[in-house]
Specification:
Bound molecules: acetoacetyl-coenzyme A
Strand order of the largest sheet: 5-4-3-6-7-8-9-10
CATH architecture of the largest domain: 3-Layer(aba) Sandwich
Number of domains: 2
Largest sheet: 8 strands, mixed
Helix content: 40-55%
Order of helices and strands: HEEEHEHHEEHEHEEHEHHHHH
Number of helices: 12
Number of strands: 10
Structural class: alpha/beta
């Protein structure tokens, strides 16, 4: 058990150190107890690098995999910047930052994930891409390894069906910025076993996150409720009811949202918002999930929000 409780600054880091020293998550495979020590993360984009950040900060060794070295370099630069932010806020020490960075091994060879005890996929939000990854992971990873997806709306049941281990496939949906947001939606596919659910839930707790159980349905809970709000805010702008700034002020000052819906849409990425609306429109078949034509037009123009320098605002 951890003996350093009184010596470490800040509540988060005290918890973090306790996780690192209180033993890894135990996994039961038959009569054998297995430790989750090495975690694979696929995708070094915003979500993937945030997920790698929290696992490394939690004392796990991380294999971070992306298709090109430049994506890995960009992801590691973001992790370094965000760890610096935490050092600056006195949440962690400079030594904690250095040891977290040392825990992350960037790789382009997906076969390296065969060494991992738990894998989280955070690749592009396209069904065909995730399908290919899940088939490959099923081939690569040991039979007992849980394959989790950070998908924000794609069916966990369908991803599970791509594998020979649908009982060990689950949704582990983090929120941006991952190092800050407490929530992890833990999504059960139709075939996900209770053991897989419990292990994933425990792992989220070990990362100092709050897991919330959700069943598989288009958009889960978070995006089923959030995206129609953002979409409706876009309709309000498109119809000239108010400017983007005015809509955002209404939500910040009237509803105490930290960001207005259009700032949030830019932050999430307008292409991601459109993809999620389409998954819900297709999956639920209700016209209330119709994407706002202004959203479609902006995505067509390459105005994807913060990441492209232009969305409802200019960056
Ligand atoms: N990494 C680490 N820490 C970060 C960070 C990052 N990327 N970004 C911000 N922070 C930290 C800051 O250091 C700061 O820490 P303290 O509270 O200890 O000072 C804290 O977060 C707040 O940051 P700032 O003061 O710089 O800025 P802010 O007060 O405006 O907060 C925010 C920024 C946390 C992003 C806040 O605006 C917020 O909560 N926005 C809403 C975010 C949200 O809704 N996310 C969910 C998106 S949906 C999604 O992710 C899932 C999906 O499927 C689409």
């Amino acid at each position: 058990m951890c003996t350093a409780w009184g010596k470490v600054r800040g509540r988060n880091i005290v918890r973090r150190v306790s996780f690192r020293h209180s033993g890894r998550l135990k996994r039961f495979v038959g009569a054998k107890i297995m430790d989750i020590k090495r975690v694979g993360v696929i995708g070094a984009g915003t979500m993937g690098n945030g997920i790698a950040h929290v696992f490394a900060r939690g004392g796990y060794s991380v294999v971070l995999c992306d298709v090109e070295p430049r994506f890995l370099e960009r992801g590691l630069a973001a992790i370094t910047k965000n760890l610096d932010r935490e050092v600056g806020k006195d949440k962690i020490t400079a030594e904690d930052k250095a040891s977290a960075l040392k825990q992350i091994e960037p790789v382009t060879d997906r076969a390296r994930l065969a060494e991992c005890d738990f894998i989280v996929e955070a690749a592009t939000e396209k069904f065909e891409i995730k399908t290919e990854i899940f088939r490959d992971l099923d081939r690569l990873a040991r039979a007992e390894v849980i394959l989790a997806s950070n998908t924000s709306s794609i069916s966990i049941t369908k991803l599970g069906a791509q594998t020979k281990r649908p009982d060990r496939v689950i949704g582990m949906h983090f929120f941006n910025p991952v190092p800050v947001m407490k929530l992890v939606e833990v999504i059960r596919g139709l075939a996900t076993s209770q053991e897989t659910f419990s292990e994933t839930r425990n792992l989220a707790l070990k990362l100092d996150k709050t897991p919330v159980e959700v069943n598989d349905a288009p958009g889960f809970v978070s995006n089923r409720v959030l995206m129609p709000l953002l979409n409706e805010a876009m309709f309000a702008v498109m119809e000239g009811v108010a400017t983007a700034e005015a809509v955002d002020e209404v939500f910040k000052l009237g509803m105490a949202h930290p960001m207005g819906p259009l700032t949030l849409a830019d932050f999430i990425g307008l292409d991601v918002c459109l993809d999620i609306m389409r998954v819900m429109q297709d999956g639920l078949g209700d016209p209330k999930y119709r994407p706002c034509p202004l959203l479609i037009k902006m995505v067509d123009a390459g105005w994807l929000g913060r990441k492209s320098g232009r969305g409802f605002y200019k960056y």
